[in-house]
Amino acid sequence: MVLELKQNLKLTQQLVMTPQLQQAIKLLQLSRLELVEQINQELEENPVLEEATSDEDEPDTKYEGEEYPSSVTEEFRQIERPHELTGEEDGRDEFDWKSYLEDYGPMRSVYDPREESEVPAWDNMLTKKVSLVDHLMWQLKLSRFTELEMKIGEQIIGNLDQSGYLRDSIEEIAKQENVSIILVEDVLKKIQEFDPPGIAARNLKECLLIQYNLLGLKNPIAEIIIEEHLQDVAKKHYANIAKKLRTPLSEILQAILVISNMDPRPGEAYHEEGVEGIIPDVYVIKLGDEYKVIVNDDGLPKLKISNFYREVMADISYNHNLEDGKKFIRDKVQSATWLLKSIQQRQKTICKVAESIVKNQLDFFDKGIEYLKPLILKDIADDVNAHESTISRVVTNKYMHTARGIFELKYFFSSSIPKTGGDCIASKSVKEAIRKIISGEDPKKPCSDQEIVKILKQSGITIARRTVAKYRGTMGILSTSRRKKYF
Fold this sequence. Notes:
By secondary structure, the protein is α+β, with helices and mostly antiparallel strands. 49% of the residues lie in helices and 7% in strands.
């Protein structure tokens, strides 16, 4: 075997993820809120970028090429320098401080009755919902507790979940406070008398029993059902309870009615969950017989390249000893240009995809969800001449505002189910049909899954019973036995 050194020429094609492409892909899959955060982060990190005000021109997009133009230095030289501030005649004497204080001061000195109807009352603005912990601590401080019992009570209240149940054991609380278990149980019983009824219970049975005792109910059958037959109550096996207790079904139903009026989650009323509003990425507006797609740019920072750094670049161009500074600013300008171009490309791509969705789902916009057509990512990808992965990134966490409501772009994609006659229907339309059937059923005699299959078959939709059960489960609809109402 002879070892030798050779040179070979080989031509190959290779896909390289350039920084520009990586940035474009990253921005494309971001939601609207994430995009705003990303833009704000770029504004902090890149000194060349700045946010344009409403009275300024559109964001500077003069340099949209992939490479930074070689003529930019010459252009920088031709920019006029702004008027320098000397500190003299800077407008201090011309500023009307009296008008400023009247318009923007903490309170107006002159009462104008015409403004009373326009300005909301202070009690409508300065409001705060009382939390469960605050409500219980207020009652704890009004109770006659010793200092040690107060600490134990604070420990118990601090270990309640949002439903009002005590998730920490008595033993652990006693160990943390270095007290006896009996003392913790005594404090717990006193806290369980607080409002709302059923608070600080350790399980559902204890919660309902606390409410039963505090409300002074006189129904021994209801107490027995709470202690021994809650599983049958959950499954609505009321006949089994009547058989076990050897009691007429009418009396069992009367006790169940008492139990159903209790609150299994007493702390939920004080749980304040922040509701985040959805800002749509595109609007679909009907003009005449056509639908128009408008990209929502409101709320997105308008970016431009700072004129200040253009001036700095022009100064550096005269001094050849500052090549490092020149390179730094050139790189930042190039990075800012890539960002502006990526944002523009993102908005254009979202608009093209939205227009294609509207074109494929015209019946939905005209008639409703029952006419939603089967649609997959490949259909849109072929229409807009893009890859399926690109379409997947576009429709993720993007929302469309229509006359029928706000929908995620993913909502318009669904699998197809064949109908009798050769046509197909979207699975979401089938789910809506099932929802309508269940909403119109008799509560005392709900439809079974097999009965729903027969009703759908009359409409030309042939699906299996297990498919109905699957769709019903995904929509959060209970089974037939649990939907049945006895009173």
